[in-house]
Amino acid sequence: MPRRLAQPARSAYEAVDRGLALVALVWQALWIAGDSRLWPGSQSAAAGVLAFGLVVFTWLLLLAWRVTDAGFLSVPSRWANVVALSATAGALLTEAASESPPDWGGASGMAVLSAGVAGLLLGTSVAIAWTVAVAAVEGAVILGVALGSGESWAPDILFPLYALAVSVAMIAARAVLTHDARRADEASAALLAAEQARLTAEGIEATLHRQERLLHETVLNTLTAIVRGGITATEELRRRLRSRCEESVEVLRHLGLAPDAADRRRDQRLEHDVHATLVELHASGTSVHLHCHDLSALPPAVYDAVLTATREALRNVLRHAEASDVRVSALVGDDDSVEVLIRDNGRGFAMGSSSLGFGVRRSVIEGLAEVGGSARVEAEISGGTVVSLSWRPPPASTDRLPEPSESGSAFAIPLLVSFSVFTLAIVLLTRDEGADLLRTIAAFTLFLGLAGLMAWASLRGPIPWWVVISAVVGGALIYRVQTSATQGESGPWTDWSSLAVISLFIVAAASGPRFTWLVVLASWFVIQGDILHEVLASGTAIIVSAAIFGRNVRRNEARVEKSRSLQLQERTARAVAEEGSQRVRRRYEALRVSGALSLLAGIGSGALDPDEEGARRWAALEERYIRTVMRVDPAVDSVHALAVELAGSAREVGLFLDVDVSAETAPVQPTTPGDRAALHWAVENSVPGGVGRFSARSEGGDYVVRLLTPIAVERHAQALTLPRPGLVLDPADADMLWEIRAAQGETDARAGSAADTAGDRR
């Protein structure tokens, strides 16, 4: 049996949300610690120091939510942190604008951080609007200063573009992770629904098999006791027999044999379907109050379980409670759930597992559990009993498995495209700063080639090792070629290769094999040269954040794949369980013609005397028929089906028919339609009260079907004219024998002859 999926402490979406907050916390700490221009001591204006203090406070507030999981801090801490970062960026922009010449580096770094954190912490549409606003304000300030001073604005306009490029990466990261998290949650919900369906099917199968055992332990044993007679000699024995008969009636009812179950109204109105029981309660002097919603929207199986449980609860009030008032309410919720309460003011009972009778355990508690609902019985000795029934629909889900994720490409492609466009803008806007044009073009072309390779690899799944190695080697080469092209020139955007390389490394750390980020980080240190400085630099923060992002992606992917696998197992198990249930149900279908329910109900109510000869004969017929149905499965082959049919006919005419059919499938098909018609005629014309025998088994190379049954002597002549005539064994005896013997070759010949005949008719 498939293992049940352990439920997580929180949903995947919540876990990702908390994980993104952790990335934002780590990124801020490393980014600010690695850039001395952002430290409080570097600020000359009080506004900058105050804004930085707000950043620290809101960072601690966000950390408090992340550590304590206090839900009321979630939204305020996010917004407070983003606003504080943006306010600090604004303060630094104002301070830089007052300088001559302005140094936009510190302010730009804080603007990048505020835009990136907004992409991590806020929803997609809100984050886009916020980051666009941050970049627009930064761009407006820079342009205003440049136009006012008459300086060129071309290189400085790259600062807000940098913020936009980083924000695209962060927004894409959050969108991918939350999308995957929702997929994981949907997969978990679908798995739970599949599991519930499987458990329901298995529960039904187990219940049917348990009922089969109960059929033997209660119904058959009770019928056997009636046949033997002498069990009502005292009032105590008579009371016990009636109780056993009532219990046997409940077993038969739950096999679907009760007339009220077969004739139930189709509109699923509870007040109509319990009307007969309510009449009995009114007749006993009990006042009944009903308040029932329309239950037509319930699945039929659920309604049947609710109806059966309600009937059982009301019958218990009638039999045991001695109540003067009963109240029944059936309410349907907005989510199509149903709650049914049956309250009485009777004498109650002492609660305990032993105090609940078979009817309550089977009809109420187990019956609701089989369809995914629950039932509770509460009673006090001081008086009154409450039966609560509840059912809620399973989580909504399609019947399809979750599709494979496209997380890698959904994150990698927007990031690579945005940084490629941004890098192209740097190359175009700084072309007059003295760099070697050919080397610059060569470095940029190599970057575009590696970016295209990584984007292509991300479309095919996790990025393989060889692509990661290509990015590491190619990144070092890009850095060397581009720095050599600058020929010692310096400027804020002269070394654009670091931004190009970091974009490749982010994708490799996030989408490559596990622990790729360690290789990428080591390569970054080697490329940059100053390891001690780079430990706290922004590039390190970004690579570590990408590694955390990749870990969350892989975890959600594993969760979805596990759910896919378990869903397949659940569906297979459910199919097997349902097939088993259907087979047992088909076995029980044959019992619909049984009169055992009427017989036992009559004895249980006192309307029939079990010691009367007619009742004992009736019980003997029903016992023999039920034993036949329990032993012979009509689904095995046509011979077994024929045996059950003949047993039902024998019961109708009062023939005591013994059935002896091997459990294995018949190796050949021994009977023709004429043969089966002759056997049915023989049983239907048997002497009432006689004893017959039907058997089918392999004998040597033949498969032999025999029916021995008493036929009135005056009908012997008609029996000899049947398509398969009977054989009179003894002229002085009424018994006649029908024997059908078929060998494998004979059966094949019959099949061929039948096919030829069919062909001639066509």
Brief overview, please?
The protein is an alpha+beta fold and 762 residues long. Helix content is 64%, strand content 9%.
What does this structure look like?
This protein has a domain at 637-761: Heat Shock Protein 90 (2-Layer Sandwich). It is elongated. The chain contains 25 helices and 10 strands. With 762 residues, the protein is of the alpha+beta class.
What's the CATH first level of the domain at 637-761? Alpha Beta
- Helix fraction, binned, reads 55-70%
Q: In the CATH hierarchy, what is the architecture of the domain at 637-761 at level 2?
A: 2-Layer Sandwich
Amount of beta strand: 5-15%
Which structural class best describes the helix and strand composition? alpha+beta
| Number of distinct beta strands | 10
Query: Main beta sheet: strand number and arrangement?
Result: 5 strands, mixed
What is the average of the pLDDT values?
A: 79
Q: What's the N-to-C terminus distance?
A: 50 Å
DSSP helix count?
25
Stretches where pLDDT is under 50 for at least 5 consecutive residues are 1-9, 256-266, 397-405, 747-762
CATH topology of the domain at 637-761: Heat Shock Protein 90
